[in-house]
Amino acid sequence: MVETEKMGSDDLEDSRILDLFFERSEQAIVELTDKYGRSAKRTAANILNSESDTEECMNDTNLAMWNSIPPEKPDNLKAFYMKVARNQAVSKYRSNTARKRNSLYDTALDELEDCLAAKDDPSADVEAKELSEAINAFLKRLSKEDRQMFVCRYWLADSTEDIAAKLHCRSGRISVRLFRIREKLKTYLIKEGLI
Amino acid sequence: MSRETISKALDGIADEYKAEALELELPASAASSGTEEKIMHPNEQKTKRFSRRVVTLALAACLILALAVTAYAVGSAVNSPKAAEKVAREELAKWKEMGLLSEEITADGPADKIYEIEGHTGNDYWYGRIFPHSYDVRWYMGKEGKYFLNLSVDTITGKIRFASFEARADETDVPVKEIEAEQPVDPENPEGEWAPVTMYLYDNFDDIFPADMTVDRFCSLLAEYWGFSGYTLADTVDEAYYDAHWSAVDGNSLLKDMPTDNYYLTVFFEGDQDGAPMYIQLSQFPGRVNMNIGTGHAVG
């Protein structure tokens, strides 16, 4: 077993955690979850709204990380871990046959669904890839803070309270800003002919 | 558009934007569980309202007493341009804290101009009264700034008695109207050739105040700020200003939906010592929007 080094703060540097993965030391998962597990679990919980599903999702996430590193050597370990956790959570969310629509992820999707309501013409429904490209083009035009708000809400499914805590402001401000961003997105997508 | 499509599209958000969002850390003390929104128990709400009322009454009594005792003795709470700028910033922060203004409004850097306004009449259709002693503290928009602010601070009470805000439209804002105009080809030479130009009007009023702000709520907050007990929305009759005979808007309507073309709303506040009206006006100029709130006499 490799001895862990504590560099400055209690958390191990990402490069050391990656080394542990490459050395096939199980300590890698311990250190990874110590450092980023709270954020990943919160995102999974936002999407799944079930303690048991969240635990199962985190186990699947850690296994997916173990199986993918190596050969993957992510430049941004946190982003990679969060992406895997979120993907696992969303997959589980979609496959749940008896899902109750009361998770934060549902609330977030509701907000966007209301905002992006299309014409009543099924043939006019846009492809996800096309919508994704348009959303990225739209996000490029926003300020960094507005982009962060959007992604925290609609990709991480953060509550407005959590977003406010992250940005050190009041949740009322977040709700108002998100409303405005959604309105701008709707206007943009109308202009692009997507809705 | 189906939820499935939206969900899959969100999966495709660019990695750089995801990484940006992940830069943000949730403080360890954050209370939210992430799966439930905090709901205040009805009894907790009642207790908070009762407590708030008691505190409000106590503060109002203290304020009245303090103003009565110190109004002449102090001479002015704001006795220099520097003090006026400091007070203007503090009052701007209060307005934002109260929810009167959008959180985005900022007074960037030092004020660009500070004018001392001392005892003279103004235009009839705005004031028609002797001005009190005040300082107009201004932050200009410049070529690239987002906001223009003019906060007129009453020197006795240290409160904003008149405010003007302008917000430039963002790149992502969509124009709501095109207007054709002419302007000099060379901006430095207005006597030279003029050419037609298309200008665009926007409705980005939520850069100035919250999008869901109603007229009633706005006036209630102003009454609270100025220490009045209530208000009445009145018709505007002003022969000097476009021979105005305009009806008051519905208090339940959204402030942002108030007419912007040759219109202003007249409001009378209860408890005001001489019944002078206050005005709210929204305007749309090429590339930016404007809100004026004003009264021509000392308040509080």
What does this structure look like?
The complex is a heterodimer of chains A (195) and B (300). Chain A is built from 9 helices and no strands. By secondary structure, chain A is an all-alpha fold. Chain A has 2 domains: 14-95, RNA polymerase sigma factor, region 2, helix turn helix motif (Rna Polymerase Sigma Factor, Chain: A, Orthogonal Bundle), CATH 1.10.1740; 104-191, Orthogonal Bundle (Arc Repressor Mutant, subunit A), CATH 1.10.10. In chain A, helix 1 (14-22) packs across helix 2 (27-48). Chain A is elongated. The model of chain A is unreliable at 1-9 (pLDDT under 50). By secondary structure, chain B is α+β, with helices and mostly antiparallel strands. Chain B has helices at residues 3-11, 15-22, 42-74, 81-98, 215-226, and strands at residues 113-117, 134-139, 147-154, 160-168, 177-184, 194-201, 230-234, 236-238, 244-246, 265-270, 278-285, 288-295. In chain B, a hairpin with a 5-residue loop joins strand 8 and strand 9. Chain B starts with a helix and ends in a 5-residue tail after the last strand. Chains A and B meet through helix 2, helix 4, helix 5, helix 6 and helix 7 of A and helix 1 and helix 2 of B.
Listing every helix as H and every strand as E from the N terminus to the C terminus, the arrangement of chain B reads: HHHHEEEEEEHEEEEEE
Alpha-beta classification of chain A: mainly alpha
Q: Which CATH C-level class of the largest domain in chain A is it? A: Mainly Alpha
Total E-strand runs of chain A: 0
Strand content of chain A: under 5%
Work out the largest interface and the residue count of each chain: A-B, 66 and 45 residues
Radius of gyration of chain A: 19 Å
Question: Major sheet of chain A: size, sense and barrel closure?
Answer: none
